[in-house]
TrEMBL record:
<feature type="domain" description="Fimbrial-type adhesion">
    <location>
        <begin position="13"/>
        <end position="89"/>
    </location>
</feature>
<dbReference type="GO" id="GO:0007155">
    <property type="term" value="P:cell adhesion"/>
</dbReference>
<dbReference type="InterPro" id="IPR036937">
    <property type="entry name" value="Adhesion_dom_fimbrial_sf"/>
</dbReference>
<dbReference type="InterPro" id="IPR000259">
    <property type="entry name" value="Adhesion_dom_fimbrial"/>
</dbReference>
<protein>
    <submittedName>
        <fullName>Fimbrial subunit</fullName>
    </submittedName>
</protein>
<dbReference type="InterPro" id="IPR008966">
    <property type="entry name" value="Adhesion_dom_sf"/>
</dbReference>
<dbReference type="GO" id="GO:0009289">
    <property type="term" value="C:pilus"/>
</dbReference>
<dbReference type="Pfam" id="PF00419">
    <property type="entry name" value="Fimbrial"/>
</dbReference>
Length: 90
């Protein structure tokens, strides 16, 4: 898949996504989107879905994709972000 095609697939970035925080030759015009196991976007600063831990353990699979951020064409470079997880046990 060409980079141009990739960007076109995921071009609608917004504040729900995670900012590119790379400082060493960063890519521009991109952000990072986090998806849950069902393929739903996990929005920044919103509660995610429940996870079954009745067995005493759980695996929480995520998928990460780059998305276009802003109107300008993305440029190649380093992409890095930080995600903080808060776990609430009920």
């Amino acid at each position: 898949m060409s980079p141009r095609h990739f960007w076109r697939c995921f071009r609608y970035a917004n504040s729900d996504y995670f900012k590119n925080q790379a400082t060493d030759e960063p890519a521009t015009g991109v952000a990072v989107a986090l998806f849950d196991e069902a393929g739903n976007v996990m929005k920044n600063n919103e509660e995610g879905s429940d996870v079954d831990i009745s067995s005493g353990a759980a695996t929480i699979p995520f998928t990460v994709k780059m998305v276009k951020s802003g109107d300008a064409d993305p440029t190649k470079g380093t992409v890095q972000t930080t995600v903080t997880y808060n776990v609430t046990y009920h």
